[in-house]
Automatic annotation (TrEMBL):
InterPro entries listed in its UniProt record: P-loop_NTPase (IPR027417), Sulfotransferase_dom (IPR000863)
PANTHER family given in the database record: SULFOTRANSFERASE SULT (PTHR11783)
Native organism: Panicum hallii var. hallii
Gene3D superfamilies: P-loop containing nucleotide triphosphate hydrolases
The name this protein goes by in its record: Sulfotransferase
Ranges where the Sulfotransferase domain occurs: 46-149, 163-275
Keywords: Transferase
Phylogenetic placement of the source organism: Eukaryota, Viridiplantae, Streptophyta, Embryophyta, Tracheophyta
Length: 284
């Protein structure tokens, strides 16, 4: 990979990391150099859950919801000492491609939660399953309207792969749309719990546990926590930078009508024949 990378197309307009186009996707150089090590060392389990996304597509919120939901027995969401109240959530759920120690994680905690920005086609077979591989892990893929993610056809291209995988492997891949998550976060939390194998009991639902998780993980709540207002996280990014508006339709404040139409055409062409269409935020 080190020998191959210099010959791949370079993009430097997405700081803080330079990107290289590899196998059809734009990825940070530092991540690509770790792909071989990930494939060689990561020992995924069938009970593992991988949270997959393209950057700026709902990664931070998905991490919080999944962590609070999966580990609610050990860490009640209403507890003052909840990890999400004292740790940046990227410490609670780490990116496997940025954390060598994670690849050797022997924790008995189940389900183990990992995050990744790698596209489905670059994930190890120990995660996706395959000939001679162990049973596949579960993958939650979140996709966002490209106009709000500001990543255009690149996001659309990767999101289409996640969508198709969820249709052919529904027990392994859960496909979420950021706009629908915003519209009904409670339904998202319950869907996540069922998919991860830790569905809510009737007593939990009646006791307001789902509501407590939604409140704890709301972007407003997370953004105002002191731990997320200061300090730095992975890749030299300040914690506060991970929390934008978190809204749908904010693209109207950044794109002209002409730019929006051009992007819509690119997305329409990319999705042609897939059976998938992004939600119109105006009708949500």
């Amino acid at each position: 990979m080190a020998e191959l990378l210099p010959s791949q197309p370079l993009e430097t307009r997405c700081p803080p990391l330079p990107l290289r186009r590899y196998n059809g996707f734009w990825l940070p150089e530092a991540v690509l150099t770790e792909v071989a090590a990930i494939h060689a060392r990561l020992q995924a389990r069938p009970s593992d859950v991988f949270l997959a996304s393209f950057p700026k597509s709902g990664t931070t919120w998905l991490k919080a919801l999944a962590f609070a939901t999966a580990h609610r027995a050990k860490h009640p969401p209403s507890g003052a000492g909840h990890p999400l109240r004292r740790m940046n959530l990227h410490e609670c759920v780490r990116f496997m491609e940025m954390d060598p120690e994670l690849r050797r994680d022997a924790s008995s905690l189940s389900p183990r939660l990992h995050a990744t920005h790698l596209p489905f086609c670059l994930l190890p077979e120990s995660i996706t399953g395959g000939e001679g591989a162990a049973p596949a892990s579960r993958i939650v893929y979140v996709c966002r309207n490209p106009k709000d993610a500001r990543l255009g056809a690149v996001l659309c291209e990767e999101g289409l792969i996640g969508w198709e995988a969820s249709l052919t492997r529904p027990k392994q891949v859960l496909f979420l749309e950021y706009e629908r998550m915003l519209h009904d976060p409670k339904a998202t939390v319950k869907k996540l719990a069922e998919f991860m194998g830790c569905g809510f009991s009737k007593e939990e639902e009646e006791g307001g546990v789902v509501d407590e998780i939604v409140k704890l993980c709301s972007l407003k709540e997370l953004k105002n926590m002191e731990v997320n207002r200061s300090g730095g996280s992975q890749a030299g990014v300040r914690n506060e930078a991970y929390f934008r508006k978190g809204s749908s339709g904010d693209w109207r404040n950044h794109l002209t009508p002409e730019m929006a139409k051009q992007l819509e055409k690119i997305v329409e062409d990319a999705l042609q024949g897939s059976g998938f269409a992004f939600v119109d935020d105006a009708i949500m």
